[in-house]
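Our preliminary data section would be incomplete without showing what the modeling component actually yields. Below, a chain of 969 amino acids is followed by its predicted structure, encoded as tokens that our downstream tools consume directly.
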Amino acid sequence: MKRYLVLVLLFAVAFASAQKTVGFKEHADAGEQKWVDSIYNSLSFDERVGQLFMVAAYSNKDIEHVKGIDKLVQDYKVGGLIFFQGGPVRQARLTNRYQSEAKVPLFIGIDAEWGLSMRLDSTYRYPWNMTLGAVQDMKLIEKQGKQMAIQARRMGIHFNFAPVLDVNINPANPIIGNRSFGEDKVNVTDRALALMRGIQSEGVFATGKHFPGHGDTGTDSHTSLPYLPFSRERLEDVEFYPYKKLFAEGMSSIMVAHLNVPSIEPTPNYPTSLSYNVVTNIVKKEMGFKGLIFTDALNMKGASGYMAPGDVDLEAFLAGNDVLLFAENVPVAIEKFRKAYTDGVLSEERLQYSVKKILAYKYRGGLNKYKPIDLNNLYQELNGHEYDDLNYQLYENAVTVLKNDQEIVPVMALENEKIAFVKMGDDDHTGYLNTLQKYADVTEVKEDSLHLLSNRLKEYSTVIVGYHKADGAWKKHDFSSKELVWLDTIAKNKKVILTVFAKPYAMSAIKNYTNIEGVIMAYQNNAMSQTVAAEIVFGALAAKGKLPVSIGTAFMVNHGIMTGTTNRLGFTTPENAGMSSKVLAKIDLLAKKAIDEKMTPGLQVLVARNGKVVYQRSFGHHTYDGMTKVKDSDIYDVASLTKVLSTLPNIMQLYDKGEVKLDDKLGEMLPQFARTDKKKIILKDMLLHQARFQAWMPFYQETLDAGKHPDTMYYRKSFSDDFPHQVAENLYLRRDYPDTIIAKIAQSKLLKKKEYKYSDFSFILLKEFLEKHTGKKIDVLSEQQFYKPLGAAFTTYNPLHKFDMDDIPPTEIDNYFRYQTIQGYVHDMAAAMQDGVGGHAGLFSNAMDVAKIMQMYLQEGNYGGKQYFSAKTFETFNTCHACKQGNRRGLGFDKPQIGSNPGPTCGCVSKESFGHTGFTGTMAWADPETGLVYVFLSNRTYPEAGENRLSKENIREDIQKVIQEAIIE
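Predicted structure:
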């Protein structure tokens, strides 16, 4: 009561002159003024006061809370609601309910600093403001603001209490931190302005906060009253700077914080939110702000600890605020206003000014023509693919390289690297590790002691350390003392790339970066930041971000190293690569059809465009029993894709070096053919499948006994020098039989006519040639020349030497040769009889690795900054040399069908496209004209290879057609 008497005395004088001129006159047009006056005149005093309050509402609370809001809306005519925790559909239903009860349509507001997900589950989450502080492209941030506003408007929300204008100078700030754009006033202003423009461009009001500035304090105003000892000059220079700029650009509203700032409010421990000097004299008069002024939540201890509910509301209003946020007791507050009005402390003009301003903003927000929220497709529209498109771009522009000694990033020359990954922190790291492993053979190393870990790491050349902390704006991200010791020890002994998926301030605990060659700040720990960071490590992306805050004295604000790129495959959303995600989703239906109709138990599909993987999914299971789901990392028997993934690139490399020519004769390449009718067959005809060879030969049949089982003359159940060639589990072939295969081809009859006839013989023989010419087995040759430097770590012959059987889908239950389930051993019988290593078959891989090799072709022999063969060589091999003779093939490559003839594609790809298909249900295709790479892998031969329904139903071709249709630019 004493406090109220003081108020009467203070404000009787303070408002005597000011209230003579009060009157809201800034109407946008006559229609607005007419509506505002009409509504205002229809309200009683209490109803007018009610318009000042925006009370807290939740969609995750019980019916008693809902009834409480009902009462405030119906009986006390509150002007608005600020929604807190809950879900979108629940909130939308409640919004419709409360709006239907309101005499005057309600303002709906929300703290959506990084999108609705700041408060609501099942809604879209954008990066924290601190992450945006690293982004240099303001157009992207403006676009984020625009999208946030579209989502807000869809939810019937009129005010987004954003952007945060606090300049976060204090690293120990307990409440702002990641919510700020950084410590530099210009950077904060530029990003806040961009976000504001985006928000307001879609008819949602932006609210700058927390005036005069909450960035340089170590106290949380939710729990107490922060003290800011800064001079007025400092405030003008730093804290006020963003507000001046945004006021000039038309910011709709601001929120005044509860702060103790003696330089602008001399009354001891007096909150700025209640200060007439701050709100009226500085904000309104000196800074000329004419928009709505909100208090920060009045239930916060920074204000509520100063005086009781009702009193604090009145004092905030008398200070010059328009909207009283999160009032704790509206009925009591209205009584206080009524008494103040009776006592002459509160004038009609003062009340009219704010209420009419509120009503004017309701008109501008469309509440003069209020419509309920349409609940149909609400979740889908709040989580559209276009939001992922932008989010990807934001992270691509945010992730920051802080240190790059010896240009350790991007990692090059993979053939010389052995890379380990060590995880620190307590949050998920699988997205980062999985993406790293899509680029190279990266092994996660885990041990319980530093000694054991150090011993394990001795064999590795580079260690990537990922520091992963839970993606929460207010969560602690500090390194533990143990982690700091481990990191220091690892860095002293190994080349290290440290990637931090946490707040920048977390890195302040690292006192010495001398021994850490590479440092990457990824800011947040989520799927996109992890993917982008991995892309930067391997050069699929260039680092573009700049540090928004200083990290001790090690790295200063605005520091960021622009790294180089390689042309390795990256990752993005379909739309970012000019494709439609909606159309690509039809692939899912075709994959489901193939599995449901038992054309194949499972499959992998990958689509890349212009060097970016836009679609990668695995479907079904290894077998029809549904026990083991197909994973992206699983490796399939790719069958005849071996021809273009192993044998052909080695031949192209020799051709590029001049070591073979297209007119080289088989009798010269392989002397055992010098005295046969095949001696004059040239390499070009072998590659074009017009060498007059037989299509194939069932070599295995001659090794079976009378009962059609493996004959003991040729096979043993265990390995020995005489029986070294493993064709399946516990089944080994006689040493000399691979030579017999070559001899049988030499003795085989040639077809009479030189024309296109697909044959495995050419590539069986080219494997033989490569091995004799280079002195290396083709599996070793391909690994050294291609797979290792390409980072194709999942591509190999005889995969059980390297992978677990659980990672390899089976290809057949063999009841005609090996009499067992073929899993981890090549399905092709001839390749199996060559110790699993054929030039025509035998390779195992996954869709990602196959895509790398196809992308290398698409880039005319270049990948990861390494030239494997010249563009001219690729052009030569990708030419249809015999099209006029009706042969569609390139040199080794398959090509699109000619005219109406049958062929391997959908008939909708360019003539420049190339690829191959495989018997086990595989396909790899690339198109230089559209920049597309398409990979389809399956085990359609399981449980038995009989009828090829996958081919008859054109599943691979229909998916290819969908991919073509998905191109939008």
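The first helix runs from residue 2 to 18. The longest strand covers residues 612-620. Preliminary results of this kind motivate Aim 1 of the renewal.
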